[in-house]
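RECORD TYPE: inverse folding
INPUT: structure tokens
STRUCTURE:
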């Protein structure tokens, strides 16, 4: 119940919960996935019907923020989309002199994110920035969030951004890394992927919609195993790493700087 309330506050605050029907009719030339105006317009409905456990992750990010965000520090939401993680962090912290930076490279997402931030007033300031997170300079951070973002970076840039995150975090700072996972055990991998598609079917997506979206994402979203993520985090310098949430092939990892 709490997770549902928080999700509603975070991603429907502007009453933009339009039904995702982007792929309900055949598309002659699919191309690669982009977070354009059409996707941004239906994103709350899309994420709710496509990502199992999303509302739980969002609400729990707020709980983690309450524990880890320190006074006089920065918080970074990298790949913020419409600002769900930013809003739940902002709602749950009461530390003085903090600032949240919400960054996304999609101008369509950033424009709507800013509206959401403006609609939900709070004392902690938020800077919404349209930029490539690979080019970002971060510092004095007590919390950094990569909520289903790393999977859209090229594999060669993933270790680099994690290294930068580690360097930007203060001692006892936390990284929340949420991703769609792949699994080395082919039986488990197939089972969890099939269960994800069952989840989408149960939420009203047709076989055509599932197939067309999968085709568009194939070259853009490249998933990694949990072990691969943990190894990268260890190489970055993190010593405290674990999976704290998983539903089917979606989940979230926390990494804490000593």
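DESIGNED SEQUENCE:
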């Amino acid at each position: 119940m709490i997770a549902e309330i928080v999700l509603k506050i975070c991603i429907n605050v502007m009453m933009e919960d339009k039904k995702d029907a982007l792929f309900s009719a055949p598309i002659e030339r699919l191309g690669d996935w982009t977070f354009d105006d059409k996707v941004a317009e239906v994103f709350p409905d899309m994420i709710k019907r496509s990502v199992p456990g999303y509302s739980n992750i969002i609400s729990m990010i707020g709980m983690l923020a309450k524990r880890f965000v320190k006074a006089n520090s920065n918080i970074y939401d990298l790949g913020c989309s419409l600002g769900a993680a930013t809003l739940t962090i902002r709602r749950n912290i009461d530390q003085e002199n903090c600032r949240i930076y919400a960054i996304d490279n999609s101008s369509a997402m950033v424009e709507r994110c800013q509206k959401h931030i403006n609609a939900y007033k709070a004392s902690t300031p938020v800077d919404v920035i349209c930029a490539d997170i690979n080019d970002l300079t971060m510092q004095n951070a007590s919390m950094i969030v990569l909520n289903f973002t790393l999977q859209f970076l090229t594999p060669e840039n993933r270790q680099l951004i994690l290294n930068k995150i580690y360097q930007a975090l203060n001692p006892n700072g936390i990284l929340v890394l949420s991703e769609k996972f792949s699994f080395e055990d082919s039986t488990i991998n197939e089972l969890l992927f099939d269960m994800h598609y069952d989840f989408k079917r149960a939420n009203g997506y047709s076989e055509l919609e599932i197939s067309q979206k999968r085709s568009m994402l194939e070259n853009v979203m490249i998933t990694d195993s949990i072990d691969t993520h943990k190894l990268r985090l260890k190489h970055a310098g993190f010593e405290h790493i674990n999976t704290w949430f998983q539903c089917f092939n979606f989940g979230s990892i926390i990494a804490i700087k000593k």
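NOTES: The beta strands are 74-78, 99-104, 126-130, 141-147, 169-182, 224-225, 240-247, 250-256.
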